[in-house]
Model the fold of this input.
Amino acid sequence: MAMAKGFAGWGNDLYTGRRSYAVVPKIKIWLGVAIGVVIVCGGLLFKPGLELGMEFVGGTEFRVVGTTSTEQSPALDAARDVLGADSSPKVTSLGDGGVRVQVGKLSNDQTQELKTALAQAYGVATTEVSNQMVSASWGSDVSGKALRGSIIFLALVAIAMILYFRNWAMAVSAITALLHDLIVTVGVYAAVGFEVTPATLIGFLTVLGYSMYDTVVVFDKVRENTEGVLDQSQYTYGEAANLAVNQTMVRSINTSVVALLPVAAILFIGWALLGPSSLQDISLALFVGMAAGTYSSIFLATPLEVALRNRQPKIREHGERVLAKRAAAIAAGADAGIGTAAIAGIGALRAGAHRGHGAQPRRQPRSSRSEK
Done:
């Protein structure tokens, strides 16, 4: 209970401004981390590179069922006896008891010969060994459609962000955060060595939607806090945006934890109990993408948006006026023995947190003298 109160109190302090983390002012750190991670993940796409599944490179797949053995060595020996010692079949143990063998394109005679060899290796009838041939053109078509879908999605997101927020800087920052999340997800996928399947592409596309949702939540609060920011002289645009990040931080963390728990269960527990399957393909993409999306929405999107907005003359000049006024107040307060923090206007950020939450002006007391 004490922990719950402590976490709730921490979140309340972040929302009201009594506690604040300097997220926006440290943009150089967050941007440096993001660039470094993107470079590393981009390099992983070249070495070791993505391991494309049979759906994308083409080939023949065999499935052995009706056997209690999930050992991979009998399948490897059978495939190399038929196709030669130089062949490199891909053998996977299935969670429901059985083995999947993937090889390159085979002739009809080779297909029948390998089917018989696999049945003998696992002691089952040839009817328990199924096979199918997949053309690489199918995977190429799926990849092309996924790429076109991603480009259309990003274009629609940019248009929607500009129309909704009336702020091109938010659109640019949101797209940058999306690309960061996608590159990180694909890079980790390459490092782990999971096979890229159609389910993986679904996971990648789902990551884009989740990341955008998280970023829009933060940006909506930024818009609320910065509305009319040029009409006052207590805090800068960056300070109001930093408050918005702090106010939505607990929500982002809670949402991400709730979403990551079932995905982690599928990824780790499912792998241990059921073995590799298409669920692991999509769950790895979702797990990495959701974690990256939480980071980018808090530490990348808003700081980058503020940096872009500060390049606009009105925002920059307003910030300079606020800081100059604050410096003058600090200097005057120092002579009077007033604390620097009290003059710096930190309380103005707290007031900004309550802006738009139904605060009503104080009513003047009604005079006891009756009007004649």
Notes: Residues 335-372 have pLDDT under 50 and may be disordered. The domain at 2-52+138-315 is CATH 1.20.1640.10 (Multidrug efflux transporter AcrB transmembrane fold). Residues 169 and 308 are 6 Å apart (CA to CA). The chain has 13 helices and six strands.
